[in-house]
Amino acid sequence: MKVYDSIADALACVQSNQTIMVGGFGLIGAPLTLIDGLIEKDANGLTIISNNLGEKGEGLGLLLQQKKVRKAIGSYFTSNRDVGDAYQAGELEIQLLPQGTLAESIRAGGAGIGGYYTKTAVGTDLAKGKETKMINGVEYIFEEALRADVALIRAHKADTLGNVIYYKTARNFNPLMATAADHVIVEVDEIVEVGQLSAEEIVTPHLFVDGLVVAKKVLTKGGIVNHDKQQEYTNVNR
């Protein structure tokens, strides 16, 4: 595990045409500093697995505007009108999953499970082309697990070994994604010495973490601000 001073160095593992998991629900729990690094990076044709593609002109929404996203896998794209426009223009492929299915598919990927059967979406357009099976008289569809080349995670604190804790609802998809990628980079507000985190509060153990960066951009009640600004704010994205 390595602590990076440079966001560019932390994202050296990201290459064109890779699959990238990105935590967050809306902008809450999104690794905004790492996303900014992706915006600066020359990597195209990306498949992004995330609940949504940010907001219009914010977070992953900026990456979409750069036309670096080839495919989006998620469940709540209507928060960003640009997603629909890009899809209608044939510039973006979308795989829409119910939110619980998205979470379970990521969890299965992290657990080494190839897929699972679920009743969710049976009989809808989302089930078209998927395997079905009757179990105890009930119809299920088969959903494949999701994994990624790289996961970009937002958390509150980490220790120098790479153990990670989260803050309230900013936790969302992040812990699941940290288990389901070949390379995991975690963005945190603070890095502390080993022993300063209670073992009871650690959610993502260090064995899942390959790199740490300190957040330089945070989401507040008043909007997104630079972390290094000398001002008072309430960080809702810890």
TrEMBL record:
This is CoA transferase subunit A. GO terms for molecular function: transferase activity. InterPro entries: 3-oxoacid_CoA-transf_A (IPR012792), CoA_trans_fam_I (IPR004165), NagB/RpiA_transferase-like (IPR037171). Keywords: Transferase. It comes from the Bacteria.
